[in-house]
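Entry 14. Two folds queued back to back today. First construct below, sequence then C-alpha cells.
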Amino acid sequence: MVFIPKVKYLDYSYNDKSLNEHSSAEENINRILEPSLPSKSKWFKGLNSFTVDFKNYVDYIVSTHKKIFRNENPEQKDNIFTAKGCPAIVDLLSNAFLVKSPAELIISINSQGQYVCSYANNLIRVEHHNNEQFSSREDDLFKNKLCLKFCIDVDINTHNTPYTFLPPMYHNKPSYEVAQGIIAGKYGKAHLNIITFVDIPKEDKVIHIKCGQVIAYLLPFNKLKLRHSKLPLNLEFFKNFNTKLDYK
C-alpha cells in the first residue's frame, strides 16, 4: 500500500460578502496571499549560482586541475556557491506565503509618534497599538518605536498548524520591523493582521507601500495549500477577546 500524506490547507475567507463568492475569491486572493517560490523574488532570481565564472562546479574543478598541471599554483576556493544554493533560503522561499498589500498605502509619521494613513481601498487599514503594551521596566527594547498593525480584510485558518510572520527581506527593504512570534492552536483561526514597529523619526517621515508589495512572509511549520472557505470563518471568539481587552 502506498502512503499518501493528507493535504493540509490554509483556509481563507473575505469579510466582504461580494468578494467571498467562490470564483471572485480565488481570482482575488493572489492580490493578498500567494504561495511563495524562489523565482518570485527578483533578488533570488538575479543571483548567479557561483561566485566564479563557470556554469557548474565540475568545470571549475577541471579548470583548477589544468592550472595545477601548468604549475600556475591557482587559488582554490573552499566555497564558490552563492546564496542561490543556500538550503535555508530556498526552503523559506518555497514554503512561505507572500502577504501582499491589496492597496497602495501612504503613511506619514512625525517626530511625536503621530501618524496619518491613506489607502486606496477598504481591503486594508492601519491601526495602532499603544506603546504601554510593550514598555518594560527591565529593558525597554521598543522605546521610540511606533507600533502599527496592518489589518487585511481576510480571515485565515491553518487548522492547528503553527505559523509565524517574518520580514520580507528577500523581496524588499521595508521601513518597519515585523513583530515575530508563533501563532498556534486555536489562535491559528484569526484575522490576517501584521504587527510592525517603526522607528519614530526626528523629522517627518513617509512610508509608501505600493499595491501588490510584499509586506511580510507567513511561514507555516508544515507545508500548506491555499483553499477558499465557502462559508465565512467563525471568529466570534476573537471578537469577544478583542472587545474584553480593548486592544485598539
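Second construct, same run, same settings:
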Amino acid sequence: MSEDLTKDRRLPKSIRWILLFGAVIAALAGAVKAVIEVWPKPPSIPCKRLDRPADPGAIGNSTRTAQPARCSLERGFELWRDGKPAALAEVFIAASPELRQLESRLLSKTKAATKAAGTVSLYFVHAPAGSGKTPLMDYFREKSGFAFVDLGVYRNELKAGSSKWAARETELRLIEKEVSWQPKLTASALEGGLEAFVKRVTGSNLKSSKGLLIDNLDEVHPDSSLQLLNSIKQYSIANPKRVIVVAGRGEAFRDYFVQNELRSVQEIRLPTLYVADDPMLTWYVDDYVAYKSGSSTPDPARRSELLNALRGLIKGHPFTRHFMYPGALGNFAIENVRYSDQNDRRLEALMFQTLIDRNKRTHNRPAKDDDISWKLYKDALIQIARRYKPNAETGVFLVGTEDVVCVTDGQSFAEVNVGRVLMRSGLVDLTPVNVRYLEFMFWPRNLHALLATGALE
C-alpha cells in the first residue's frame, strides 16, 4: 500500500524535466542580470536618426532650379531718378500695398490724411535675416522723425564686454554645448512699461513723439521680445492714435500671436524683390555699386563689369537665382561671383559658408571655427531637411511644435526641438501668424535641397 501511494505521488518524468529546465533558466537569468548591473550601459537613442539622403527627385529638382516668384511694382514707379537708383526702402514700398498704407499712416500731416491712411496703429513687419528690414526702418525713421529703438545694440554691447540693460542668456544648447546666445533684457530695463523703457534706453519721450519705431526685435532673447510686445500692446490700447512699428524676423513675433488675436495688429511680410533679371538686376547693381563707393551715382565702369559678371554667374549656375534678392543673399552672390568658374557643388558650398560666416559674425550662430557645436548643429539641420519635404511651389514645410530630432557627439545622444533649431539658424523664414504649426521655408530655398541630399556634408 505504501509503495502504491509513493508511486502515485511522484510527478511524471516529463513534468520533472520541465521544472528542472525552468530552474536552469532562472539561474541563468539571475547571472545575466548581475552582469548587466555591473557592465557599462550603452547610450540610449531616444529618437530615430535619418542618416540616408532624401530622394533628390523629391526635393532637389523641385527647388534647385525652380524660379522664384516675381513681384510687381506700383504703376508709374521709377527705379532711377536723375541717373540715381531708387532707395531699397522706396522699392519695397512700391512693391507692397501694405507698406504704402503704412507710409501714409506714418507721414500723414492732417487729420483727413490720417483717417484716409486707416485706423490701425500697431504694425509688425517681418522677413528673414538680411532681407532689408533695417534699411526700411531707417527710411521710416528719417521721414517720420519718430522715436527709434534699435534692439541690436545689446548684442554688440555684450560682445564688447557688458550692457547696462541686458545680460547674455544661452538660447540653444546641444549636449551641454552652447550653440547660440541672445541678450536678455533685465527686469530694470522693462520696469514701468513701454514709455519708461524707451525713455530709459534712448532718452526719447514718447509723449512728445507721434510714434515709435523698433528694429531688430529678433536680436533679443525670445522671453524679452514677448515681454516687449505685450508692453507695446498695452501702450497701444491706452494710446490708440500713436503709431508703433516693430520689425524683426518672423520667429520674434510668433509667441505673441499664439497669445493674442491678430485683428489688433497689421502684420506685413516684407515683399520679396527678385532681382535676377532686368531691369531689377541693373537697378540692384547700381544700388550696390553706389553704396560701396559712398556715392549716390554708380561708377559706369564698375557697374558694367559687375553686371556682366552676374549675368554670367546666373547663366552658368542657375541655382544662384535663389540668391538674387537685395540684401544679404544678393550680396553673397556678388561676393562669390569670382568663383563662377567652379562647378555647382563647389560654388554652393562656398555660398553656404558665406551664410554661416555672416550668422556667426552678426547673429551669434554656430560656425566652423567651433567644431563640436557646428557639427552638432549642422547634423540637426541635415536631419530636419531630410525629414520635412517642402511644397514644390512655395518651398514651405510644416513642423509640429513638439517635433524633435536626435543628435550625438559620439558619446551621448540628445533630443532637440526642431522649431528651436530652425528659429536660431538665421537660415529660414517663419510665418508668425500660423499658430497651429510652425510654417518654415529655408532661405534661400535651395538650401533645403543642399542639406537634404548631402551636398553640404
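Quick look at the second one. Residues 80-269 form a domain with the Rossmann fold fold (CATH 3.40.50). Confidence is low (pLDDT under 50) at residues 1-8, 32-47, 49-68.
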